[in-house]
Write a structure and sequence with these properties.
Helix content: under 10%
Radius of gyration: 50 Å
Largest sheet: 7 strands, mixed
Shape: flat
Length: 817
């Protein structure tokens, strides 16, 4: 039962259920399936409290109002009833339960203290644990292990159980595994089981003599220790045999068997005190884990004789070995003693052996050696008697000098000093390093390195003869490294400024002018810039027109330089190249492209577009509309044009003049829109002591002739408000075969854009056209605000941008139903 109220139920004594006193409490209609049981529980609760039965029909019939003020006892009884109803409403929903069962090849499953389940399995077998869960909704199951995820291949196996399967289990995969089930009801259910992986490795016997007793004959009348070691789980048990005789502690006075305290359970030592002739025999060490998990015992044998000796080896190579890159090198290691015969291995002091290494017994070959292969290589001989023998050699690969900088450009003016430095990063051999400095082919200086790691060459006063490329070659037996320095007096390239406010500062009928601005990169690095060579060419042309721009005084870093390009042909684009000039000569050039655009011009203070040029004054089609506006003239229009609609000349009356119009013939449908976007117009920055914003007079001519004329709308879009368009002007219906003029005052506070929207009417005779769009600074004349040749529906709208936020705020705060 859903309950929502502001207080407790009030006593019904002397009042009719349904009256209200103060805040009301609403009881929603109960679920039909629980109606009878809920009613019965409520009645029983009232009777149990010793209260008379109160009719409960009104709450079950719908929303009713009951009194809020009620005795505390009645309120407690009611809350108990609601609680019982909520509990019974749980239905089949139940929190999760979980238990773990096994279906793999377990050796044993036992219960330890604190009810911890232990699952024992042999290494290499398959572990399979199944987590059986109950609960609704279906619990989600996750297997985890004490140190991370249990298995990367875990997948759902069925609806109510999840199986964790690990094939070929290894010893490191032992540990405690957890099965966690949760479905959002109550606490998650978690069960765990400890997996114990059993294994037994092959035992290894090593032989040692008592320290301090080693003399010429290693095992003649000396004490010898035979150490047996095997890795296992559970702990291993060892036993020793001499031939077929089982050796036990105390069975032979010359034999002692014990386990060192620090390796107890892992190592078993057989001590032969003061060797006797009968001690020269075959000894066997048997390692056993008592056949748990059917793991068999393992045995290793060692023959002890008077010839048993630790290994000794010899390297048949020099130390160190110095080779050139690309050569092949062979290292040979031979044994000179040891019984039984020792095995030979090669290792590297750091990392692994190179992949290309070829091993053949004690012979190691490295083909095509590189500097990465250099280092210390060691040959190790081992026969488990005494300590392994080890011999090492150092391989040095001759390395031609690595130097820095490989290349550096230095720009410096005449009569100034410059110092070049070439540093050695690495080289071998270092003791034979020599250097030489050259300017072009001219040798300037030679020498040999002592303890320093670099060489320098200074030029105290630069002149035209000192400019050029300096090369410093550092040489050893393996080759040479080279540092190169380009010393030049060339000026850095200028950097064009692309954020010029309204760069098109003149907007005449056929030509335009452009305000070109730039800064000079690092002007103080070289001699003073006396001029710039300006090159300009029309886009797509080959010929450059050049002239010099004189510069007076020194250019400061970050100084903005301005030059006006005039008499540029509309609407062509131009490439501009700018090159700084110093007494050294030409510096680096930079090139940019300038394009004609039609923003509001603060100098000319007006914009006019008659759609005569090829780029239609940079008007563009909206990508979100249904169809496009079309550029048209009466002389070039299709001969199959629809009669009785559209203009028969442009606004000036010329048959050759162009205008923009919407074609409403098929397949256009009623209500479809075509939207034409103007360029983005910039406005002059605000004057803090002047008017709050600038007014502009926006005017255009429109033509709406035809019995199916739809609607022509004009919107104003402000910068940063790409989704908000303010309506400026609108007109609909047939206006006759004539051009009409509209004037609208606009007050933009930031860069803005105008949008013409034509909406198709109910038929094909609904062409709408516009022409001669103008924007001029200042408000429109009052007589112009009433449109010339005006008709109903074509009325200029005076729009103040600052009123727009007020209107939006009022609409938000107004009450809604």
């Amino acid at each position: 039962m859903s309950v929502g109220c502001a207080g407790l139920l009030r006593s019904a004594r002397g009042r009719r259920l349904g009256r209200t006193d103060g805040p009301r409490c609403f009881l929603r209609r109960a679920v039909p399936g629980h109606l009878d049981s809920a009613r019965t529980r409520v009645e029983r609760a009232w009777l149990a409290a010793g209260l008379r039965k109160v009719p409960l029909h009104p709450p079950w019939a719908g929303y009713v109002h009951v009194h809020v003020k009620m005795d505390l006892v009645y309120g407690l009884v009611w809350l108990l009833t609601v609680l019982l109803e909520g509990i019974s409403g749980q239905g089949v929903y139940a929190p999760p339960t979980v238990r773990i069962v096994h279906s793999g090849l377990a050796c044993n499953i036992e219960e330890e203290r604190y009810s911890e389940r232990v699952y024992t399995i042999r290494e290499g077998e398959t572990l399979e644990l199944t987590c059986l869960v109950t609960g609704h909704p279906r619990p989600q199951i996750r297997w985890t292990k004490t140190a991370g995820s249990a298995s990367d291949r875990f997948q759902d196996s069925s609806v109510f159980n999840e199986t964790l399967r690990i094939t070929n289990i290894q010893r490191h995969q032992g540990g405690r595994y957890y099965c966690k089930a949760e479905n959002g009801l109550g606490s998650p259910a978690i069960k765990s089981i400890r997996v114990d992986v059993y294994y037994l490795d092959d035992p290894v016997v090593t032989v040692h003599q008592s320290i301090g007793e080693a003399k010429e004959q290693f095992y003649y009348e000396r004490t010898v220790f035979l150490r047996c070691v095997a890795n296992s789980n559970p702990p291993v048990r060892y036993s020793w045999r001499r031939g077929q005789e089982v050796l036990l502690q105390g069975s032979d006075k010359g034999v002692e068997i014990y386990e060192p305290f620090f390796t107890q359970g892992e190592t078993k030592i057989l001590k032969l005190k003061n060797l006797r002739p009968q001690d020269y025999a075959n000894y066997s060490c048997i390692a056993s884990v008592r056949n748990v998990c059917n793991i068999p015992d393992k045995m290793v044998s060692f023959r002890l004789s008077n010839k048993t000796a630790s290994p000794s080896i010899k390297l048949l190579v020099d130390d160190p070995i110095v080779v050139n890159p690309g050569e092949a090198i062979t290292l040979v290691c031979v044994t000179t003693g040891g019984e039984p015969a020792p095995s030979l291995t090669w290792v590297r002091s750091f990392g692994t052996l190179p992949e290309k290494t070829v091993l053949n017994g004690g012979t190691l070959t490295i083909p095509a050696i590189t500097s990465d292969d250099a280092g210390t290589y060691s040959c190790i001989a081992n026969n488990n008697v005494g300590n392994p023998a080890k011999k090492s050699t150092n391989i040095i690969v001759r390395d031609p000098p690595a130097v820095e900088p490989a290349f550096l450009e230095i720009r410096q003016g005449q009569d100034r000093s410059v110092t070049m430095s070439c540093r050695v990063l690495r080289a071998y051999p270092i003791r034979v390093l020599t250097y030489e400095w050259r300017l072009g082919n001219k040798l300037l200086r030679t020498g040999q390195f002592d303890s320093q790691e670099y060489t320098e060459y200074p030029v105290k006063s630069l002149s035209n003869e000192n400019y050029g490329v300096y090369n410093c070659s550092i040489i050893n037996e393996a080759g040479a490294g080279r540092c190169s320095f380009l010393v030049t007096g060339k000026a850095y390239a200028p950097e064009f400024y692309y954020d010029t406010y309204n760069p098109v500062w003149q907007n005449r009928h056929r030509v335009y002018s452009y305000s070109l601005q730039w800064t000079q990169m690092n002007p103080d690095a070289v001699d003073r810039i006396v001029a710039y060579r300006l090159g300009i060419r029309q886009a797509g042309q080959q010929r450059w027109w050049e002239q010099e721009i004189k510069i007076n005084g020194n250019i400061q870093k970050g100084e903005l330089i301005t030059y006006n390009l005039t008499e540029l042909i509309k609407p062509e684009a131009y490439e501009v190249r700018l090159t700084p000039l110093t007494k050294f000569g030409e510096g680096d050039s930079t090139i940019r492209v300038i394009k004609y655009s039609a923003p509001v011009n603060p100098h000319l203070r007006e914009f006019h577009c008659g759609f005569e040029d090829g780029n239609i004054c940079l008007f563009t089609q909206d990508d979100t509309d249904n169809f496009d506006w079309t550029k048209q003239s009466t002389a070039t229009r299709n001969t199959k044009y629809t009669p009785n609609t559209g203009p028969n000349a442009d606004r000036s009356g010329s048959k050759e003049g162009f205008y923009m119009y919407i074609e409403t013939s098929r397949p256009r449908l009623e209500g479809e829109k075509a939207r034409l976007l103007s360029p983005v117009f910039s406005i002059a920055p605000k004057n803090p002591y002047g008017p709050t914003n600038t007014a502009y007079c926006f005017s255009f001519f429109y033509h709406m002739y035809g019995q199916h004329i739809g609607v022509l709308n004009v919107y104003l879009r402000l910068k940063g408000q790409t989704t908000i368009e303010n309506p400026l002007w609108s007109s609909s219906g047939n206006k006759g075969q004539r051009w009409n003029e509209a004037h609208v005052n606009i007050y933009p506070i930031t860069s803005f854009q105008l949008i013409f929207e034509g909406i198709r009417g109910p038929g094909i005779e609904g062409d709408i056209a516009i022409d001669d769009v103008s924007i001029a600074e200042g408000e429109c004349a009052k007589q112009d605000l009433t449109t010339k040749n005006s008709v109903d529906g074509a009325v200029g709208i005076l729009v103040h941008i600052w009123l727009f936020p007020v209107i939006v705020l009022i609409s938000i705060l107004s009450p809604r139903r």
